[in-house]
C-alpha cells in the first residue's frame, strides 16, 4: 500500500509543481520579483530533492538550546552518537545517523551534512530496507549566527521536522512565531515532542501537553502529533521512534514535504495577487474564487469604438461624404445654365485629403484636424473606461497590469486611427448611373429650349426684314417654338429639383455606408491596440488563477 501511495503522491506532486511553475511564469511582471524568486527557490529545491534518493527519509531534530535534541537523537538511535551537553555552545554541526547507507551520500552532500554515522540496526526501528537519515542539528536560538543559518537552511530541506520542546520554553513566542506558524502548511510532516517530561510532576504532564496542543492549533498545526518524552529516562522514546519509523516506511514524507512547500508557495502567490488566502490553507477550499476579471464584452467594445470614432472625427468625415456626393451630383446633373457655379464650391472630401483617386490610401494621411485636447481627453476616457470595466473583479496587481495594457497601446491610437480613416474606401468619386441619364435629358431640354429661341429668332428676323413669315405649327393652339422654350426650361428646372431629391437620398445612403466602414476601421484599430492587449492580460489572469488552483492542489 505504501509504495503505491507514494507513487500516487509523487505524480500528484508532479502536476502541482508544474502548475506552480506556470503560475510563477504567468505572474512575471505582475507580482513582486522577490515573491517570484521565492517560488523559484521552492521549485529548484523540489527538483533537487527529487533527483536525490527517494528511498531515504530525512528527519531533522529542531529546537531551542538545551531542549534535548542531541539527547533525544541518541535515545531514538539507541547509541551515544551525538554529544549532549549542559554547557554551551553544544551542537555546532549537523550530525547524520543513517540507516540504509546505500545511496545516501549524494543526498547528504546536498544537505551539506559532513558528519555521518552509519547507525546500527535497532529492533523495531530501522532495518536495511528502511532508508532513514536522522539529523541532530544546532539550536535555532543559538548565539552563533552560523548555527542559526544552518537551522534555517535545514528547516527548508529536511523531509520531516521533529520539534523538540521542553516544559520551560514550549510556549516561547520565538519557536511558534518564527517557525511553527509559518510552517503551518507542513503539518503532515511535522512531529512535536515535549521532552524532559521527567522534570514535571506527573499530574502536570497532561495539562502541559494539552496546552501545547492548543498553542499548536493556533499556529495552524492542529493535526500534528504531540508526544511527551524523556530522553534521559527513556520514557516515551519508543513512541517517538515509532512515529519516525512510520513516516519513513511510508516513503511519502519527501513528496508530502515538497507538496507542503508548494502549498505554502501557492499561498504566497495568492497573497501577493491580493487573492484571499483563507482558502489556500491545506484544509481550506475555494480560495482563488473572485480572482477573475470581467473581460471585454461586445457592448464595451462597441462603446469604445464609438467613442474613439467620435474622437477621431468620423462624424466630420461622414458629413463630408454626403456633402461631397451632393456637390458632385449638382455638378453633373444641375441645370447646365447655372451648374458651373458649383465648380467654385470646394469638395469637402478633397479638403480633408480623403478624395484621392488612384493614390495608395495606405500611404496617405488625412487632413483632418489633429486631435485637440478635448478629443484626446475623450479618447483617453473611453480607453480608461473600457480597461476599468474589463479589469473589474481582478485582484489589485492584475488590475493594474490590465489597465496598463490598455494604456500602452493607446499612445499609438491617434496615428493609427488617422491611417485607418485614410485607408477606408469612402466611394468618393464613384459615379451614379442616374447622373448620365439626368445629364443627357438636361442637355436635351436645354437644346430644345435653345432651338425654340433660335426658331423664334429666325421668325423675328424675317419679320424685321419685312420678309414673308411662315406660319409656325401649333399644338393645341400653342406655337411650337414657344412650347419648346417653355418645355425645355421647365423640364430643366424639374430635373434639377428631382436630382436634388435623388442625390439627397443617395448621399444619405453613401454616408451611411461610409459611417459603417469607418466605424469598422476604428473598431479594428481599437481591437488591435486596446482590446486585444487587455484580453491577453485578462486571459493571463485566468490561466494564472487556474494554475494557482492546480498548484494549491484543488482542481
Ligand atoms: N531531565 C532531563 N534532562 C534532559 C532531557 N533531555 C536532555 N536533558 C539534558 O539537557 C541538557 C541539554 O541536552 P542536549 O541534548 O545537549 O540538548 P540540545 O542542546 O537540544 O542538543 C543535557 O544536560 C541533557 O542531559 C530530559 O528528557 N530530561
Ligand atoms: Mg545538541
What attributes does this structure have?
555 residues, alpha/beta, Rossmann fold, 7-stranded mixed beta sheet, 9 strands, 58% helix, binds guanosine-5'-diphosphate, binds magnesium ion
Short description:
The protein is of the alpha/beta class and 555 residues long. It has 17 helices and 9 strands.
Describe it.
Helix content is 58%, strand content 8%. The protein is α/β, with parallel strands linked by helices and 555 residues long. Among the domains are: 196 residues, Rossmann fold (3-Layer(aba) Sandwich), CATH 3.40.50; 180 residues, no CATH class. It has a seven-stranded mixed sheet with strand order 3-2-4-1-5-6-7, with helices on both faces. Strands 8-9 form a two-stranded antiparallel sheet. About 2% of the residues have low confidence. The site of guanosine-5'-diphosphate has 21 residues, from helix 3.
CATH superfamily of the domain at 55-250: P-loop containing nucleotide triphosphate hydrolases
Radius of gyration: 45 Å
Overall morphology: rod-shaped
Ions, cofactors and other bound molecules: guanosine-5'-diphosphate, magnesium ion
Helix content: 55-70%
- How widely separated are the two ends? 25 Å
CATH architecture of the domain at 55-250: 3-Layer(aba) Sandwich
SS element count, helices: 17
Structural class by helix and strand composition: alpha/beta
Fraction in beta strands: 5-15%
Q: Strand tally, please?
A: 9
Oligomer: single chain
